[in-house]
């Protein structure tokens, strides 16, 4: 598998969480998100406990709060959507600070914010403690369709290549006095996007031919076989197991 370089979300460390096999962490995060989504929105205390569980994982992984909070900024579009829900939703209304808000909209906004934030935080912790190459090996170990794993691997490997190509094209435009100002610059930018597509397509063709000439038949060789002991599975599944207990209490209380 390719993509051995470290990504920006990854934080190098030697914590017990870093040492866990990647497929155990993937399974744990997936199960945790399922439990969080299944929790009734009225059980606000349950979401607070989920946040405490994630904070405990971050502490065990030695991931600083600031590092994690910066990664949560990706949630901003969903926050904007949630803020609008109380104003546009139908149903019973309630006065809050002189504004007429929908009760269903308030519950919906809370539901999106709470569950979305916890899901993004769990994913950010996974990315902070697992390198991209290990994530791909973990997906392969969990029997994800090999074609999807290969596509993800190529996207990660050549994403930086395309970004570097875009940077060179930008420098070339600026060296010729181009400045992106107003509608008149759209034509140049559109031509640049078309040239980038053609270059990327041609590079992909050359890479595919090179792989076929070296014996590629549709599947990538597995270099490292990732395994996990029963103790490692138990350690990884402690998070979703505890969350499941909280979820069941949320439905019964």
Overall number of strands: 2
Q: How much strand?
A: under 5%
Number of helices: 11
Strand order, sheet with most strands: 1-2
How would you spell out the order of helices and strands?
Answer: HHHHHEEHHHHHH
Structural category: mainly alpha
As a percent range, the share of helical residues equals 55-70%
**Major sheet description:** 2 strands, antiparallel
Mean pLDDT: 87
Global outline: flat
Give the low-confidence spans: none
CA-atom Rg in angstroms:
23 Å
End-to-end Cα distance? 47 Å
Give the topology, please:
Layout: H1 16-19, H2 22-38, H3 44-61, H4 65-71, H5 76-88, E1 93-96, E2 99-102, H6 103-129, H7 132-141, H8 146-175, H9 186-213, H10 230-236, H11 238-252
Helix pairs in contact: 2-6, 2-7, 2-11, 3-6, 3-11, 5-6, 7-8
Membrane topology: Multi-pass membrane protein
Main location: membrane
InterPro entries: ABC/ECF_trnsptr_transmembrane, ECF_CbiQ, ECF_transporter_component
